[in-house]
């Protein structure tokens, strides 16, 4: 680690060594600029948590062929979606042999391992990695951001551009007035366990070969009527099993998140998938799910904001790491261009917004801009619908001598008992519109 | 699985001082449901009926930030533990 006191001014300082921050540092360092990546963990990755799926497309922009050397868990060849009732399940899935071939499509990762490796790549490209360091504040001069105040002695560092990649809680963006207080409806609190399991058992149970992996996203009963989803992801010799629920719902219902996870693990359908496993680690993390309308300001004089700190999460598609990495890379590109012109003003850095507008990041966030509010008004998608669909399927598939015509009548009754046909049509139409 | 057993699985390097501070003790007494006791994923907060205050077991905090905005009175002064302290995930 370089001596902090010997360091003069940087071209850029990046706060936070997650996917956004490290992508940014890597991009800027590769261009030959002087960049510091400051992180508060004992090593980059020690504080970082996600579900966790990583997307090839976003990583290979930084490091081509990374899958040959990066510490990845499994490449995903099958994705399932489960709609659970209390004792049954409707599943929809997709498996493709294409995803079993290089360059693959997406991967499960354990962030403590992957982020540490990724920061090593930024280090090799020439970035100064400064660990075990909290950034307490941002230093401004005449309304321009010029540096950071760290918790080290004589710990002030200066740069032309400061990039805030300090995650969902971004205290720094708040201190700069770039965001207000987050709404508890815009935050999901997720808890997760790493459950170890022999790899042969995982491969048998999920029908996988070698390093192939599967993901299951779970809707319905597990969230106990709240707005939330569960998941089971396969790692090499463990499963990531977790559930995320909107924080406002947890505050209101006073359900303990780890009780929710325990009950999910004991659901008869889920229990079979995880039996024989041993919990190895437990963790919690918040996910910013407010979408486009809840985004903070993302550029200012001498400052950019990327990743979770900028609320760049596509909640519907369960995407986050790719938005973070892409925004970090585009922030880096903006810094390189600004350095060529010697202009770090708000106006010059607005280029970052233009680059994001041209990328999938803001295109996707804009497309779904009405979805977070829509889902908040329709918590039935997480409770009533999975329940009645399971009941209807139970009826349809139970062979009990009842005529098919009578079955049809019964199924119609199940579907319209809790929701009138008109309301179902209305829900469907409004949802269609919310998807943009 | 009990929360104590869950936290036992996690590596913490706690600082001597708490990074979480209740701003005003009186506010907690008037808080009807004290939801921090429930939604905190590490059960950092517990109401001590005898002393009439919320106790803060900051040593087992995940630094997730839920209490910062989840407290109905925004009565928790929330910051990160000093550099190198706090939770250190082995898997993440």
What is the element layout, followed by pairings?
The complex is a heterodimer of chains A (436) and B (92).
Chain A: E1 10-15, H1 19-30, E2 35-38, E3 53-55, H2 56-60, E4 74-84, E5 89-95, E6 106-108, H3 111-124, E7 128-130, E8 135-141, E9 144-150, E10 156-164, H4 171-175, E11 187-196, H5 199-206, E12 212-220, E13 228-234, E14 238-246, H6 247-253, H7 257-265, H8 268-274, E15 278-288, E16 299-300, E17 303-305, H9 321-341, H10 346-349, H11 351-358, H12 360-367, H13 371-377, H14 384-397, H15 404-418, H16 421-434
Parallel strand pairs in A: 1-2, 1-10, 2-7, 4-12, 10-17
Antiparallel strand pairs in A: 3-6, 4-5, 4-6, 8-9, 9-10, 11-14, 11-15, 12-13, 13-14, 16-17
Helix pairs in contact in A: 1-3, 1-9, 9-11, 14-15
Chain B: H1 3-8, E1 12-13, E2 20-22, H2 25-30, H3 36-39, E3 45-48, E4 53-56, H4 66-70, E5 76-78, E6 86-87
Antiparallel strand pairs in B: 1-6, 2-5, 3-4
In short:
By secondary structure, chain A is of the alpha/beta class. Chain A contains 16 helices and 17 strands.
Would you kindly provide a written description of the structure presented here, covering whatever features stand out?
The complex is a heterodimer of chains A (436) and B (92). Chain A is α/β, with parallel strands linked by helices and 436 residues long. Chain A has helices at residues 19-30, 56-60, 111-124, 171-175, 199-206, 247-253, 257-265, 268-274, 321-341, 346-349, 351-358, 360-367, 371-377, 384-397, 404-418, 421-434, and strands at residues 10-15, 35-38, 53-55, 74-84, 89-95, 106-108, 128-130, 135-141, 144-150, 156-164, 187-196, 212-220, 228-234, 238-246, 278-288, 299-300, 303-305. In chain A, strand 1 (10-15), helix 1 and strand 2 (35-38) form a beta-alpha-beta unit. In chain A, helix 1 (19-30) packs parallel to helix 3 (111-124), helix 1 (19-30) packs parallel to helix 9 and helix 9 (321-341) crosses helix 11 (351-358). The longest helix of chain A has 21 residues, at 321-341. Chain B has 92 residues and is α+β, with helices and mostly antiparallel strands. Chain B is built from four helices and six strands, in the order αββααββαββ. Chain B has helices at 3-8, 25-30, 36-39, 66-70; strands at 12-13, 20-22, 45-48, 53-56, 76-78, 86-87. In chain B, the strands form three sheets. In chain B, strands 1-6 form a two-stranded antiparallel ribbon. In chain B, strands 2-5 form a two-stranded antiparallel ribbon. In chain B, strand 3 and strand 4 form a beta hairpin. The longest helix of chain B has 6 residues, at 3-8. Classes of the chains: A alpha/beta (436), B alpha+beta (92).
């Amino acid at each position: 680690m370089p001596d902090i006191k010997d360091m003069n001014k940087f071209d850029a300082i990046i706060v936070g060594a997650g996917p956004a921050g490290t992508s940014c540092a890597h991009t800027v360092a590769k261009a030959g600029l002087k960049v510091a990546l400051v992180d508060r963990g004992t090593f980059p990755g020690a504080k970082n948590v996600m579900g966790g799926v990583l997307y090839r497309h976003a990583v290979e922009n930084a490091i081509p062929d990374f899958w040959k050397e990066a510490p990845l868990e499994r490449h995903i060849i099958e994705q399932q979606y489960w709609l659970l009732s209390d004792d049954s399940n409707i599943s929809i899935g997709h498996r493709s042999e294409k995803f079993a071939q290089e360059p693959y499509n997406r991967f499960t990762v354990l962030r403590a391992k992957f982020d540490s490796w990724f920061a090593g790549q930024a280090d090799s490209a020439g970035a100064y990695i400064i660990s075990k360091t909290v950034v307490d504040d941002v230093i401004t001069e005449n309304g321009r951001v010029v540096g950071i105040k760290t918790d080290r002695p004589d710990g002030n560092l200066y740069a032309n551009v400061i990039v805030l990649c300090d995650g969902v809680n971004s205290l720094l963006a708040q201190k700069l007035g770039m965001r207000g207080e987050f709404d508890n409806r815009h935050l999901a609190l997720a808890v997760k366990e790493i459950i170890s399991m022999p790899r042969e058992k995982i491969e048998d149970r999920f029908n996988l070969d070698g390093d192939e992996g599967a993901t299951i996203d779970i809707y319905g009963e597990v969230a106990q009527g709240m707005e939330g989803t569960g998941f089971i992801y396969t790692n090499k010799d463990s499963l990531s099993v977790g559930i995320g629920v909107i924080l406002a719902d947890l505050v209101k219902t006073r359900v303990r998140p780890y009780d929710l996870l325990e009950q999910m693990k004991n659901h008869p359908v889920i229990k079979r998938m995880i039996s024989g496993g041993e919990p190895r680690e437990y963790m919690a993390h918040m996910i910013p799910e407010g979408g486009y309308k809840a985004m903070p300001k993302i550029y200012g004089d001498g400052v950019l904001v990327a990743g979770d700190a900028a609320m760049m999460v596509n909640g519907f598609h369960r995407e986050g790491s790719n938005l973070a990495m892409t925004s970090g890379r585009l922030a880096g590109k903006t810094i390189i261009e600004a350095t060529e012109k010697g202009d770090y003003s708000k106006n010059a850095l607005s280029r970052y917004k233009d680059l994001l507008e041209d990328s999938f990041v803001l295109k996707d966030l804009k497309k779904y801009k009405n979805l977070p509010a829509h889902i908040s008004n329709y918590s039935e998608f997480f409770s009533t619908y999975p329940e009645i669909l399971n009941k209807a399927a139970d009826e349809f598939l139970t062979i009990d001598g009842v005529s098919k015509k009578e079955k049809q009548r019964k199924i119609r009754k199940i579907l319209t008992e809790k929701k009138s046909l008109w309301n179902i049509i209305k829900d469907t139409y409004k949802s269609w519109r919310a998807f943009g | 699985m009990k929360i104590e057993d869950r936290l036992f699985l996690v590596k913490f390097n706690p600082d001597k001082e708490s990074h979480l501070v209740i701003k005003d003790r009186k506010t907690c007494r008037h808080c009807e449901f004290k939801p921090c006791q429930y939604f905190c994923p590490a059960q950092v907060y517990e109401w001590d009926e005898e002393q009439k205050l919320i106790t803060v077991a900051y040593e087992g905090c995940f630094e997730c930030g839920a209490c910062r905005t989840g407290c109905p009175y925004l009565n928790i002064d929330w910051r990160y533990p000093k550099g190198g302290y706090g939770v250190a995930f082995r898997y993440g």
